[in-house]
Amino acid sequence: MHCRSRIQLRRGYVKMKAGLIIFQKNAIRGHVKTRLATSVGDDHALEIYNWLTTYTHQIAQQVKVDRYLFYSDFVPELAEDCKNDYQFELQSGSNLGDRMHNAFKKLFENGYSNVVIIGTDCADLEISDLNDAYMALSHSDLVIGPANDGGYYLLGMSGYHPEVFDEIPWSTSKVLELTLDIANKLGLDYEFLNIRSDIDTFEDWQNFTFRKKIKHVEIPKYF
Length: 223
Known about the structure:
It is built from six helices and eight strands. It has helices at about 35-40, 40-60, 95-110, 125-135, 175-185, 200-210, and strands at about 5-10, 10-25, 65-70, 85-90, 115-120, 140-145, 150-155, 190.
């Protein structure tokens, strides 16, 4: 599906292509939610991961933009059943920053004007977060969804600014702070979305299930 957001210029309206990047690890036992697995075991960590990916896609499919699903290792056969909803790609790069850099580059080279990236760790993600992100990009260079752990659960750009991924110590509490330092040095303007929590540890999961009154998780793998 294609969504065309519009900005008004002096002579009328200009159509803009909006794209959503979803970074997703392949659902392999022992390779996902490893920090969580130290407390709950590999099987339950995989079950929780499948719940998170299913939830993320339920939210993503409600926003009317082109969706690109970037897998970590390979495109599974089940993905073919959803090829009308997504375009499938493989992540490339030596670290998270390189992989995000390359994904954004691909979409901007394909003519997209507003591009947003999310992962599959944010169980609090709402459709309003995505809609607000694209709205913010109509007048800002960047939009950022801050995470409670000092990172971000969403990043959007209205132009290609790969410098925001340079020399960031990923998976630390400094990610957001250093990203903003780079944005400020580049003179980019940015907006924030609501602060959300990622699910990385057993404590994160306990807090989430308590707030949402979830007693048991048994969700089949999405794809």
